[in-house]
Amino acid sequence: MQRDIDGGVLSPGEKLPPQRNLAFDIGVTIGTVGRAYALARERGLVSGEVGRGTYVRDASGALATSPLRQPLPGYAKTRREAEAETGALTDIAPDGSPLAPGKLRLDSTSAVEVGQAQLIARHVSGIMAAYPTRTTDYIRTLKPEWQQAGASWLATGGWAPENSGIVPTLGVHAGMMAVIGAITAPGDKIAFEGLTYASIARAVSLIGRRPVAVPMGDNGLDVDAFDHLCANQHPKALVVIPTIHNPTSAIMPASERERLAAVARKHNVRIIEDNIYGARLDGTPPPLASLAPEITFHLSGLSKAVAAGLRAGWVSCPPGFSGSVPVAHKMVTGGMPFLLAESAARMVLSGEADDVTRKVRAETATRLQTVRALLNGYNFASHDSCPFIWLKLPEPWLSSLFVSAARNAGILIDGDDEFRFTQAAPSTHYVRIAFSILPDRASLEGAMTRLRQLLEAGPSGYDSYA
Fold first, then answer.
1. Is the pLDDT reported for residue 243 higher than 80?
2. Is the predicted pLDDT of residue 79 greater than 50, yes or no?
């Protein structure tokens, strides 16, 4: 590439071929081509922009073609164009250059794109017109509509919270951190399932709390083990995912939820119930918030069902905490932006959030059928509304080795280490494979075919020294 640019074979402003096409033409992997393109960018030979491709720069290193100077179209269109160009979801660095060229991301569970970006754009435009000054200032009071939207979105399993106890948050993660900050003090122990969304467990360590692991059974948290842990270690709170557990996709039965609520009440342990994957899901058991309302904080949001970029979540607080949790949330996050809170509320109250959720879940179920067909014969847990599977690796694969082999094959997945927060927790030799942000079903089929080939080859098909 550098020789052809120096010799005039490639002219300033000329567009380079898509990475996948070039890889096929010259007989190398797309990862090799991606690294070459990245190196060319580092040397100032080319400039890549999502949705428009990679172009040759002029001798001064300036952009040499007018298309790169034109305003980009809407985000959703740009994303699809980028995916068509590279065959993979492209992350963008602060300087605008793509990251991990050629990698297919099967390590994210944000809502699949079904056209929601256009709805969000319309709401944002309407909000800017209706509240030109509110969007430029801090939030000082909660709008009743935000609480109404939260109460509507959180309702599940025959239970509906009171509007007065609803606190809008910057997503479920921020909401849980706000709750933990409001109800615990540095040094307090917080119990988590042994496998969990470990970012929260690691985050509580950063603010001086001590995470402790509760063993798990087939249906989620082991209630007897939790009872024993409470009697011996006295945690102040429990963070639990009873509906579509991350990463196992388990759903805790109603009888176990009743036992868990009773144990938490007996030991005066407050419950932080994460329902991010179970939001608006029909036929689920009653939430813990309905069984122990005086000690349970129930949270959910839009990231898995509507749009992760809205950073929209809500907490339903027990009586007496709807004042302290918003204060803690502001201290932890800096405050809730008016634009995001209003956009999320309008999406929910208009019914559009439910419409998007139905489309997201229909696409998720369709993609899961593809996964099940291409990984037929292997042992994995799944749920029709869940954008990932929890795959048991066959002998003698280890989780970390398989993650490395998959990355080498151009696929990013999560090993069980991503869901453990202590060395004491045993390795399960599972991996989580997500499929919601792939650009299309063809990409999914290609990724699953590659993963199956890896599984069938065994560790002899991968050498980290190559």
1. yes
2. no
- pLDDT at site 68: 33
Radius of gyration of the chain measured on its C-alpha atoms:
24
Evaluate whether residue 105 is within a structural domain.
no
CA 289, 293, 296: angle at the middle one, nearest 5? 60
Amino acid identity of residue 364, one-letter, is T
Structure confidence by residue, pLDDT tens digits, 169-213: 999 999 999 999 999 999 999 999 999 999 999 999 999 999 999
In what order do the strands lie in the sheet containing 237-240?
166-169, 313-316, 296-301, 270-274, 237-240, 189-193, 210-214
Number of domains in the chain: 3
Query: Do 384 and 312 belong to one domain?
Result: no
Residue 277: DSSP 8-state? T
Supply the range of the domain harboring residue 433. Answer: 354-461
How far CA 397 is from CA of 35, 151, 375, 463, in Å, comes to 28, 45, 16, 13
Q: Based on the fold, state whether residues 252 and 160 are members of the same structural domain.
A: yes
Nearest-5° angle of CA 24, CA 26, CA 31? 65
- Rounded to 5 degrees, φ, ψ at 176 are -65, -40
Residue 64: pLDDT band with limits 50, 70, 90? very low
Nearest in space to 143 (alpha carbons), one of 410, 391, 348, 302: 348
Alpha helices in 350-384 (DSSP H): 352-374
Instruction: With H, G, I as helix, E, B as strand and everything else as coil, classify residue 270.
Output: strand
Has residue 108 been placed in a domain? no
DSSP secondary structure of 344-358: HHHHHHTTHHHHHHH
Specify whether 240 is located in the same domain as 146. yes
381 and 292 in a common domain: no
Q: Are strands 313-316 and 388-392 parallel, antiparallel or unpaired?
A: unpaired
Report if residue 211 sits inside a domain: yes
Q: Which of 50, 79, 108 is the last residue of a domain?
A: 79
| 86, part of any domain | no
- Residues 33 and 70 both lie in one domain: yes
Whether residue 365 sits in one domain with residue 344: no
